[in-house]
Every structure is written in structure tokens, then in C-alpha cells.
Amino acid sequence: MMKLKSPPVNSLSLELLTEFAISLEKLENNRACRGVIITSSVPKIFSSGLDITEMCGKSMEHYTEFWRAVQEIWLRVYSSSMVTVAAVNGSSPAGGCLIALSCDYRIMAENPKFSIGLNEAQLGIVAPFWFKDTFVNVVGHRIAERSLQLGSLHSAPEAHKLGLVDELVPEEKLMEKAAAVMAQWLALPDHARQLTKTMMRKPVVDRLVAHREEDIKNFVTFISKESIQKSLRMYMEMLKKRKS
Ligand SMILES: CCCCC/C=C\C/C=C\C/C=C/C(=O)SCCNC(=O)CCNC(=O)[C@H](O)C(C)(C)COP(=O)(O)OP(=O)(O)OC[C@H]1O[C@@H](n2cnc3c(N)ncnc32)[C@H](O)[C@@H]1OP(=O)(O)O
């Protein structure tokens, strides 16, 4: 099991992304490890998505390093040879949703206050093509398009209805259910499951691998724009105001 632990809200900072990638690599290289459940040790939050402070007021070099780390974590989770189950035990916007979408199966706590989705448009930013491709592969083109254009965050019941999560279970049963799902998936021979997963996911993975440097350049150019920086600052202010 891998538990995201970066209070208060599990923002995906460069440091957390780097630790996450190292832990995944260790598991991937351990032949005895055939599956991983990804969850959070922060109450009510799976992950608040990418750490917005990493994308605000920093240098081009920093944005480059940060985006490479974001790409890396997606490539590792999405193309993992292990069975990956997301036990979504709290809200999961944007980058947090991407982590869950990249797993093989998603189980969410059935709490209507928890929400999940790719809400980038609400921040005035655009989900990159590989976020979009991952989303389309889970929910289909029409639902993904509407949800992305509106930057929707869906309540747990809504997310289940849309197919964004596979199952809802009472909060106290979440880990038990995740373990049962893992056992079901691990009952199959690894090679057949792994080859099938590669067949389904390879075109999307290959697309980023082929355009990785271009994607970093696009991100750095986009995020460095003063209008985008202003949107992000306003969003952070809104988060702080909402609190007080
Ligand atoms: C055309 C070319 C395109 C190329 C591509 C270009 C661009 C794409 C770039 C990026 C994609 C972006 C992906 C992302 O993931 S962006 C992040 C999106 N995340 C969110 O919108 C979530 C925001 N947070 C919340 O809604 C809430 O915090 C919460 C998660 C629901 C939790 O609520 P709660 O009430 O429990 O906590 P607080 O709101 O009080 O938050 C506590 C504390 O944390 C700070 N914080 C929250 N989220 C983040 C974050 N994502 N990054 C950094 N900091 C965050 C919040 O401000 C509070 O701070 P404080 O100092 O006030 O304690």
C-alpha cells in the first residue's frame, strides 16, 4: 500500500512527486510486489492536485523540473506493470484525480462531500493532452469533454454515475474493499493482464513519450504568461478567503 502523506492537503509538490516516483520504482523492481493500493493518510483529502505554489512566481528552470516530475509520475502509474487500485478516501481535484484515473480501478468513499474531477478550467488553465487522454479512456469522449470544458468537480455519487470511479463504498469499508479488488485482479496470471494493459494504454503513453520535451516547453511558456500567473494568484487568494 502507498499512502500519500503531505498535510494539510496532499498537494503534489516537487518533493512529494519525487518521493512518490522513487517509492513506485522500488515497488516496480520488487518481483514479489504484484500490486499497489494508492490512498491517503490525510483525513478527507486524497490529494488537492498539483501544488499551485510550484507553478507561481518561480523560474523557467523550476517549472521545467516540476513539469518533468509531473510527467514522470503519470508515466510510472499509468504504465505500471503492477495492479494499481486507487482507494479514494477524500476529495481529489485535478492532479489528484489524474493519479486516481491512472490506476486500474477506483473505489471511492461514498461521502457526498468528497469531490473528484479535472477542474483545471476553473483555475484558468488547461488540462494537458495526456490528462485529457487518460480521462477519455475512463469515461468516454462526451463526458470528458463536458467535464473538462466546465472544469467540473463531481460529488462521489455523481462521479460513480459517470464512471469516473468504479465503485462507492462506505468510508469504513474502503480499505477492505480495495484489498478484495486487489485479490480479484491478482488471481489472474500477470503476463496476460500486463500485456492487455500495455495494449490498451500504449498509444497514450507513447504520445507523451514522443512529445515529452515539447510538452515541457508548452507548459513552461503557458504557465509563465502573466495572465496565467494572475489567474493562479487569484485562485490561491480565493482558497484562502474561503477559509476565513
Ligand atoms: C495549451 C498548453 C497547455 C499546457 C499545459 C498547461 C497547464 C496545465 C498545468 C497544470 C495542470 C494543473 C493541475 C492541478 O492539479 S492544479 C491544482 C488544482 N487543485 C485545486 O483546485 C484544489 C484546490 N484546493 C481545494 O479545493 C481545497 O483546498 C481542498 C483540497 C478541497 C481542501 O479543502 P480544505 O478546506 O480542507 O483545505 P483548505 O482549502 O483550507 O486548504 C488548506 C491549505 O492548503 C492550500 N492548498 C489547497 N490546495 C492547494 C494546492 N493544490 N496547491 C497549493 N496549496 C493548496 C490552501 O491554500 C490552504 O493554505 P493556507 O496557507 O491558507 O493554510
Could you explain how this protein is built, in words?
- By secondary structure, the chain is α/β, with parallel strands linked by helices.
- It has a single domain, classed as 2-enoyl-CoA Hydratase, Chain A, domain 1, CATH 3.90.226.10.
- Helix content is 55%, strand content 14%.
- It has ten helices and nine strands.
- The chain has a five-stranded parallel sheet with strand order 1-2-4-6-9, with helices on both faces.
- Helix 1 runs parallel beside helix 2 (60-78).
- The chain is globular and about 50 Å long.
- The structure holds ligand L52RLTOW.
- Ligand L52RLTOW binds next to strand 5, helix 9 and helix 10.
How do the helices and strands line up, and which of them pair or pack?
Blueprint: E1 2-4, H1 14-29, E2 35-40, E3 44-45, H2 60-78, E4 83-88, E5 90-93, H3 95-101, E6 105-109, E7 115-117, H4 129-139, H5 141-150, E8 154-155, H6 156-162, E9 167-169, H7 174-186, H8 190-210, H9 212-224, H10 226-243
Parallel strand pairs: 1-2, 2-4, 3-5, 4-6, 5-7, 6-9
Antiparallel strand pairs: 7-8
The structure holds ligand L52RLTOW.
Ligand L52RLTOW binds next to strand 5, helix 9 and helix 10.
Enzyme class: isomerase
Main location: mitochondrion
InterPro entries: ClpP/crotonase-like_dom_sf (IPR029045), Enoyl-CoA_hyd/isom_CS (IPR018376), Enoyl-CoA_hydra/iso (IPR001753)
Q: Which structural category do the helix and sheet elements fall into?
A: alpha/beta
Low-confidence parts: none
The CATH H-level homologous superfamily: 2-enoyl-CoA Hydratase, Chain A, domain 1
Question: Helix proportion of residues, in percent?
Answer: 55-70%
The proportion of residues in beta strands is 5-15%
Query: Which CATH architecture is right?
Result: Alpha-Beta Complex
CATH topology name, in short, is 2-enoyl-CoA Hydratase, Chain A, domain 1
Bound molecules: ligand L52RLTOW
Distance between the termini: 35 Å
Number of helices: 10
Q: Tell how many strands the DSSP assignment holds.
A: 9
Oligomer designation: single chain
| CA gyration radius, whole angstroms | 17 Å
Q: How is the largest sheet built, in terms of strand order?
A: 1-2-4-6-9
Largest sheet: 5 strands, parallel
What is the CATH first-level class name?
Alpha Beta
Tally of domains = 1
